[in-house]
Design a protein that fits this description.
Layout: E1 5-6, E2 11-16, E3 22-28, H1 38-48, E4 65-69, E5 71-72, E6 75-76, E7 81-86, H2 108-115, H3 131-147, E8 151-159, E9 162-163, H4 169-172, H5 185-198, E10 204-211, H6 225-234, E11 239-244, H7 255-258, E12 262-263, E13 266-267, E14 275-276, E15 279-280, E16 285-291, E17 301-304, E18 310-313, H8 324-350
Antiparallel strand pairs: 1-2, 2-3, 3-7, 4-7, 5-6, 8-9, 8-10, 10-16, 11-16, 12-13, 14-15, 17-18
The chain binds flavin mononucleotide and ligand EPS.
Length: 361
């Protein structure tokens, strides 16, 4: 499989760099005849786009998606779906002063080692601008999932030391932080203001879940559903940890507490996060991700240049003070892509998505 392609049967290839003319995606393997709402794809992109509010990067991109192929009269044709978004606000000269320096914490140093030289304009392919195409592809996956009664949702549940104490999902769509606890919004606002003053950044935690997933999705060994989710979520820029269900908290649990007991009316708990033996159990699939603080910050720090000489770096230009905010729709997109891929795989092998045993939620 190509390094730029994700998925086995619902395959998404992305191309493009942050400061090139455009970004694009090709989706191969999407079933034909499915109604596609283009306005929904755009709405999803609007949730991720830069420049939308004072809490994210000020780079202003409309992120207007054009569907070039694979959709006719509002329905998928079964042929490759081509999507493209033009870049319009690159301002590459912001990077000219630091083109020979390696930003600590970004991918400059590793790209230089891998390829021998690098596109220093806005991080090139390493910029999270690429994730716009994942969100566009994920919006198509979400529509297919919705037709099967499956919903994917995510929220930023922690920024720095500020935790959500209340999980009101209706609030997530009401505020620019995608935060489920309205009582902490002023604290989030104050923290971002302070970070901007200091020229610094902060990390975040996101919870992402899928509701209505049938039991039976996932392969038994290598392509376990949880393994594929971990890969998909870890492939998002700046993600440093992924957990499924109770995650690291399982370390302190007893078996008698962790195992999700079963009754004729359903599971008694969901410590497993909806996956057993790499296969979905029919419960809500729950994952969390930790995102590191943005590395491109104004606060001066030590680095080296391409000649190995010590340098001090301060990154100006336009950057997110907390990348976790805009990563919320990206996490949803990646979970949606994994689920649709496994639905197609389950149908290909077993015909049915889920067999006729008692269904527990
Ligand atoms: C939504 C989103 C926005 C981001 N915005 C920035 C940014 O403005 N500046 C920056 O230096 N890094 C940003 N990042 C993080 C970098 O893309 C990431 O650190 C870089 O690709 C190196 O990869 P790694 O952190 O996974 O090792 C962002 C990440 C995401 C998910
Ligand atoms: C433009 C977007 O975010 C960018 C993500 C990013 C990075 O290093 O990840 C760096 C900044 O932009 P540039 O690539 O111009 O340096 C952000 O503005 C976007 O997400 O659409």
């Amino acid at each position: 499989m190509s390094a730029n392609t994700f998925g086995e049967l619902f395959r998404v290839t992305t191309f493009g760099e942050s400061h090139g003319p455009a970004l694009g995606a090709i989706i191969d393997g999407c079933p034909p005849g499915l109604a596609i709402d283009e306005a929904f794809i755009q709405a999803e992109l609007d949730r991720r786009k830069p420049g939308a509010n004072r809490y994210t990067t000020p780079r202003r991109e409309a992120d207007e998606v054009k569907i070039l192929s694979g959709v006719f009269e509002g329905k998928t044709t079964g042929t490759p779906i081509g999507l493209v978004i033009e870049n319009t606000d690159q301002r590459s000269k912001d990077y000219s002063d630091i083109k020979d320096l390696f930003r600590p914490g970004h991918a400059d140093y590793t790209y230089a080692h891998k390829y021998g030289f690098r596109d220093y304009r806005g991080g090139g392919r390493s910029s999270a601008r690429e994730t716009a195409m994942r969100v566009a592809a994920g919006a198509i996956a979400k529509q297919l999932l919705a037709q099967m009664g499956i919903t994917v949702r995510a929220a930023m549940t922690q920024m720095g030391a500020i935790h959500a104490e209340q999980y009101d999902w209706t609030q997530v769509y009401e505020n620019p932080f995608f935060f489920p606890d309205p009582a902490r919004l002023d604290d989030l606002d104050a923290l971002i203001r302070q970070l901007k003053k200091e020229g610094d950044s902060i990390g975040a935690r996101i919870r992402v879940e899928a509701i209505g997933v049938p039991a039976g999705l996932g392969e038994p060994v290598f392509d376990r559903l949880d393994a594929d989710l971990a890969k998909a979520l870890m492939s998002i820029n700046a993600v440093k940890a992924v957990s499924i269900g109770d995650g690291f908290a399982v370390v302190e649990q007893r078996g008698s507490e962790h195992r999700d007991e079963m009754t004729p009316t359903g599971f008694s708990s969901n410590h497993a996060g909806g996956v057993l033996g790499g296969i979905s159990s029919g419960q809500t699939v729950v994952a969390e991700i930790a995102l590191k603080p943005t590395s491109s910050i104004k606060k001066p720090g030590q680095t080296i240049d391409v000649h190995g000489q010590a340098q001090t770096i301060s990154t100006h230009g336009r950057h997110d003070p907390c990348v976790g905010i805009r990563a919320v729709p990206i996490a949803e997109a990646m979970m949606a892509l994994v689920l649709i891929d496994h639905i197609l795989r389950q149908r290909a092998q077993n015909g049915a998505v889920s067999h006729q045993f008692p269904i527990l939620k």
